[in-house]
Amino acid sequence: MAAIIWLGAGLLLAAGETLSGDLVLLMIGGGALAAAGASWLGAPVWLAAVVFAVVSILLVVAVRPPIKRRMLSAPQTLTNTDALIGKEAITLGSFGSAGGQVRIGGEVWTARPAGEEDSFQRGERLIVRRIDGATAVVQRGN
């Protein structure tokens, strides 16, 4: 009977993890499943509780940190204007510090040079350094 209670607790904790996403409940649920296994093998309740505590602590201390690091180090997908930085821009006409227009990935953007004394000719390939409002700040690629 104790094994079924430990098993139920482990499953509930694992299910509760879907709400928190911090992996703590999942690790404690693993401890409860280990206690269920110990109880199933005939361990007394106090020993199953010790197995639960030891396995839970080991999982939280030793297993959770590397899993969290791996989850947090996943490459992030840039979106919106952040995705344009570093992209190629092609000038649609000659322009200088007053600005002009460029094509970035099929879209037309207003643009201005990164350096005030820079000027560009039509058809020149540039690099987007940043987006300032609705204006791409561009410079020649180096």
Can you offer a commentary on this structure?
This protein folds into 2 domains: 2-72, no CATH class; 80-140, Beta Barrel (OB fold (Dihydrolipoamide Acetyltransferase, E2P)). It is an alpha+beta fold. It is built from 3 helices and 5 strands. Strands 1-2-3-5-4 form a 5-stranded mixed barrel. The mean pLDDT is 91. The chain is rod-shaped, with a radius of gyration of 29 Å. It is a multi-pass membrane protein. The chain crosses the membrane at residues 44-63. Keywords: Membrane, Transmembrane, Transmembrane helix. It holds the Pfam family NfeD.
Distance linking N and C termini: 72 Å
What count of domains describes the coordinates? 2
Strand content: 15-25%
Helical amount: 40-55%
Number of strands: 5
**Distinct helical segment count:** 3
The general outline is rod-shaped
Radius of gyration, whole Å: 29 Å
Q: Which ranges are low-confidence, i.e. pLDDT below 50, for 5 or more consecutive residues?
A: none
SS content category: alpha+beta
* Lateral arrangement of strands in the main beta sheet: 1-2-3-5-4
Q: Characterize the largest beta sheet: strand count, sense, and whether it forms a barrel.
A: 5 strands, mixed, barrel
Mean pLDDT across every amino acid position: 91
Topology as a string of helices (H) and strands (E): HHHEEEEE
Keywords: Membrane, Transmembrane, Transmembrane helix
Transmembrane segments: 44-63
Membrane topology: Multi-pass membrane protein
Domain NfeD-like C-terminal: 82-140
